[in-house]
Write a structure and sequence with these properties.
64% helix, mainly alpha, 181 residues, Double Clp-N motif, 4 strands, 10 helices, two-stranded parallel ribbon, two-stranded parallel sheet
Length: 181
């Protein structure tokens, strides 16, 4: 990667690490980066999502329902169990948060290793910056990296929340071009 991270971009990476730690995860994934971007209420990503009619709290809830516990939704789906449906039915019968863990997680310390997908997202972010003729990566470039990757928990949460990925990508890229001009 030849592009430099802006201070805001570094802050997003740091906040993504904190999001992962709060969830008790020992890795850093696209979902943690998206959660950090969603927490940046003054950032363009949140503004673009809201302008498109998306409830950012809904995306956050979707991510947490996918990764908030140690159950592997994809593995369960492969054997015919829809974890999201199990949660919905359980919460309808027993109330919201019925499956929430009461265990205290052991705090995760130190630097968290990024997943392969997150590494790919960071590379795609740098490519997006180069494509736009920009030398410094901003949080918006990170969002473009997530959108360009097209996979992982972050994209699944956005898609499940009915976010138009192509429209959001165009919106963020247009903002970056305007901002650079």
């Amino acid at each position: 990667m030849t592009a430099r991270f802006s201070g805001d971009c570094r802050r997003m990476i740091s906040q993504a690490q904190e999001q992962a730690r709060q969830l008790g995860h020992t890795f850093l994934g696209t979902e943690h980066l998206l959660l950090a971007l969603l927490d940046d209420v003054d950032g363009y990503t949140v503004a673009a999502l809201r302008a498109g009619g998306t409830d950012t709290g809904d995306i956050r809830r979707r991510i947490l329902s996918m990764v908030g516990d140690r159950l592997d939704a994809e593995a369960l789906t492969s054997i015919g169990i829809d974890l999201q449906r199990v949660r919905e039915v359980t919460e309808a019968r027993f109330g919201a948060g019925a499956l929430a863990s009461t265990r205290r997680s052991i705090p995760v310390k130190g630097h968290l290793r990024p997943t392969r997908r997150l590494k790919a997202v960071l590379e795609l972010s740098a490519r997006a910056a180069r494509r736009l003729g920009q030398q410094t990566l901003s949080p918006e470039h990170l969002m473009l990296g997530i959108l360009d990757d097209g996979g992982g928990v972050a994209i699944r949460a956005l898609t499940d929340a009915h976010v138009e990925i192509a429209e959001l990508r165009l919106d963020v890229a247009t903002h970056l071009q305007r901002d650079a001009a």
